[in-house]
Amino acid sequence: MRRKLSYKLTSSFLLHVTGVFITLQFEEFILQDSYKCTADFLEIREFNETGLLIGQFCGVGRIPPIESLNTLWLNFHSNWVLEKSGFVIQYYLRDVTAVDTLKLNSDRKQSTTFSESGCVNVATGGHGTYQSVRIPTGKILSPVPCSFVLDGTQSTKSQMKLHMTTKQSGAYGKSCMGRIFTLIPDSNRSKGHVGIFETDSEYLLNPKRWEQVPYICLGTSRVIELLLNSTLTLVLWSSNEHKALSLEYWIDYDECADSPCHHTCINTVEGYQCLCHNGYQLIEELCVEKTVEVADYCHQELTAGAGKIISSSEPFNLCSYRVVQADQKITLTITKLIMPFPGNCSLNYLEIKSNKNLLDRLCDNVNGYEVAAGSSITIFQYTNTTLLSRLPFFIAEYYTTLKQTEACQYNLLGSGEISTPGYPTLYKPHSHCIWKLSTSKGKVIVLDFVDVDIEFTDGCKFDRLEIYDGRNKRARLLQTFCGDQSNHGTVISSGHRMTLRFITDGTGAGRGFNVTFSSMIS
């Protein structure tokens, strides 16, 4: 069966021969690659266009043999974007009565037969799918056994993920979707061996070197997911014992062995993840020390997670600064604002907008002004140039957090204990939590630190705990904490109120903090 890919092509093939197994052998496969194979693809189903989906394939690579009973339906689709070589498939027919078998004895004195010639499938890497043969009721009397091998012995350390599904119920005495075995490690076994059915069949048949994987499989179970730390996995399936099996698999090797990451590499089933030490952020697999982005001249755009603006003294009548963070909340604090003509908006002002929405217009000197908005904030400086005056001068700082769906704000009275959500596990990124403490008038609040483990950066500009001497964050800042210290001593308010604010960015984490609070007569 040959197919050369052309533009805007859709064609179907139906292979139907009663009483035989049909095996597809892929000799060449080169199609346009696309997400979820939605552009050019080859779709294979059992029976017809509405039958059980065996797979939808695209891209370039090796596809394992596909086998089914009686009928296979193939549909090839090509769009108009790219032209590739296409595919070449050979198909074979095999009588269902000519099934060669061998036996694997488990430690429990059980035996399962499976086909050695036509129903043995071996996968040696990557990600793919496997479908057990489907036996129409009344068409065949003898059992049809099959096996599937996941061979990761190319690496001394590999993980395997199995996602098993079925559309059959537990009727007719059939239970799980197959018996699963993993290889017991053997220090005498040679490393990197592939092709166990060709040269190592005695090893495969030795029950002392295989361990059966237990998994819960009730009569109604239709989805099972397993994560196995094994270099070799064997799935045995038989038509008279098990439900029809649809298996999606991942064979993962230790990509971290070659140290692709700058600081820390975490191996995952479908790849790897690079992590940075606290105080650093990941940029294209490199860990770069966190720094605050600074804008100090007109018409700048800031895109970092935290930053500072020192307004320009250039002789313009209008100057702007824009902070952009998609899908995040931006909190801007103006720590200092000096107007050339305080209180007169016709002569000078500082205007703050989010997209096209006006948030505020400031015309007087202020300190500690705060405003929050989503996605973007733009600050406009204006002055009347006919008076030969400079622009308003201001200093502002900002940080970003995720738009939280759950409130993280607490009002507490008297005495008690405070800790970050989830303490002592690592706190979440983009957190913004506030605790407001109060006691009776005539008393002060005493805060005693038990544990502090917050990502350290110079000046505590990213993850930090702020403590204010009053009812909100406009009160006097008593102290800011970050780093890893078990004893930060005691902090005492001047009145009967105190506010704690905990802020984190998107990278780096620690246990958080744990403090106790009480009150005493001032």
Automatic annotation (TrEMBL):
InterPro entries membership: CUB_dom (IPR000859), EGF (IPR000742), EGF-like_Ca-bd_dom (IPR001881), EGF-type_Asp/Asn_hydroxyl_site (IPR000152), EGF_Ca-bd_CS (IPR018097), Sperma_CUB_dom_sf (IPR035914)
EGF-like domain sequence ranges: 252-288
PANTHER family in UniProt: OVOCHYMASE-RELATED
Entry keyword set: Disulfide bond, EGF-like domain, Repeat
Source species, domain of life: Eukaryota
Gene3D superfamilies: Laminin, Spermadhesin, CUB domain
CDD domains linked to this entry: CUB, EGF_CA
Domain CUB: 22-94, 298-363, 398-520
Protein's UniProt name: TLL1
One Pfam short name: CUB
One function term, GO molecular function aspect: calcium ion binding
Signal peptide (residue range): none
